[in-house]
Write a structure and sequence with these properties.
- This protein has 366 residues and is of the alpha/beta class.
- It contains 13 helices and 12 strands.
- Strands 4, 5, 6, 7, 8, 9, 10, 11 and 12 form a 9-stranded mixed sheet that branches.
- Strand 4, helix 6 and strand 5 form a beta-alpha-beta unit.
- It is globular, with a radius of gyration of 20 Å.
- The two termini are 29 Å apart.
- 50% of the residues are buried.
- The mean pLDDT is 96.
- Bound molecules: magnesium ion.
- The site of magnesium ion has 7 residues, from loops.
Length: 366
């Protein structure tokens, strides 16, 4: 089996409402569908989400690097030779989500050609992942209403609160309102997307002490090295690295320098191959991981479930898998379902991301 060509198809699907974070705001999912074609007629599928505010990649840059560099360089390669593919893509620096999507599409091909689900090839630990739902910037009462609705409707009992606002009291108040309204049983953790300084984050932790928070993700810029190290040393809960640790090398640097003591893994930027390397680093060093969301579509979320459920360490904590609910539509032919707070892996050969061709024709922009 040989790679023949790689398609990079831009498409746009609107969100049901604008999504706001400390690092930016988005109105539509303007992503790139990656399709790797083989000489045997198999097609490996994955989704690449451009995040210029986080990684510097745009829809146009992902298309260009796949069309002009990865496509020609990978043509003729057997998808099973994953390490060769990794080395070829490594020659080009950065472009993390483009590389991640190509890698996932190659795993999809491997699974299809072997007639085996990829979650089994990766580890086969569990048949699904508990879902954590992300709560964006809104007044505290609305956040509580949303959390209660998601617990009722989907059985979700873990919530990530997006924070990083000033004055700090806004986020502190939201934590108190959520804890009071949701009770002790619900898990709540924070993600500030570098919105604070390390010292502001310490202040927030002091003012939310006793609220049962389980983690604080990317509180400040990782370049605030000394203050961030002090924050990690003084925090009673794990400080999670996310956008500061897109590659295994970044994970090593941040963990060993004390910049964080837990890691968010995102298959959208790491693919399955580098996500496996990162997971190995984290289990080897004894730190927690969470499976994060790059505001993924259902295709991207299915990839996260496939990887996250495959390993014991990556399915311990609930995965961030519900962002696709904010999209008005999706390209996946058979929609993802959240039942009793869980998304299940697909027991089909490959990853199982079958595309609805009519929808692709409707939303593609080329
Ligand atoms: Mg994050």
């Amino acid at each position: 089996m040989k790679i023949e060509r790689i398609e990079a198809i831009p498409y746009s699907i609107p969100y049901t409402h604008p999504l706001r974070f400390a690092s930016g705001e988005v109105h539509a999912a303007e992503h790139v569908l990656i399709r790797v074609h083989t000489d045997e007629g198999l097609v490996g599928t994955a989704d690449a989400p451009p995040r210029p505010y986080t990684y510097g990649e745009t829809q146009a840059s992902i298309i260009a690097v796949v069309r002009d560099i990865f496509g020609p360089q990978l043509a003729g390669l057997d998808p099973l030779d994953r390490e060769k593919a990794q080395q070829i893509m490594r020659r080009t620096i950065h472009n993390d989500t483009a590389k991640g999507a190509v890698d996932i599409a190659l795993w999809d091909l491997i699974g299809q050609s072997l007639g085996t689900p990829v979650h089994q090839l990766l580890g086969g630990y569990a048949d699904g992942m508990r879902v954590s739902h992300m709560l964006g910037f809104r007044p505290a009462a609305e956040l509580l209403e949303e959390a209660q609705r998601f617990r009722e409707q989907y059985g979700i009992t873990t919530f990530k609160l997006k924070t990083g606002r000033r004055p700090l009291g806004l986020d502190v108040e939201a934590v108190h309102v959520l804890r009071e309204g949701l009770g002790e049983e619900v898990e709540i953790y924070l993600d500030a997307n570098r919105g604070w300084t390390a010292n502001e984050a310490l202040e927030v932790l002091r003012r939310t002490e006793g609220m049962g928070l389980t983690a604080l993700e990317e509180p400040c810029d990782a370049s605030e090295a000394l203050s961030r190290r002090r924050l990690v040393q003084h925090s009673a809960i794990p400080i999670v690295g996310d956008e500061s640790v897109p590659t295994p090398g970044d994970v090593s640097r941040e963990l060993l320098s004390g910049g964080c003591n837990a890691i968010c893994i995102k298959t959208a930027r790491s693919g399955f191959t580098q996500a496996t390397e990162i997971l190995g680093l984290c289990t080897g060093l004894g730190v927690d991981v969470t499976m994060g969301n790059q505001i993924d579509t259902q295709i991207g979320s299915l990839a996260t479930v496939t990887f996250g459920a495959a390993h014991e360490a990556s399915q311990r904590r609930a995965g961030e898998l519900s962002n696709f609910l904010d999209m008005a539509d999706d390209l996946l032919a058979e929609p993802l379902v959240i039942r009793d707070g869980v998304i299940r892996v697909r027991e089909t050969a490959g990853v199982g991301a079958v595309i609805d061709e009519d929808k692709l024709a409707r939303y593609r922009q080329d």
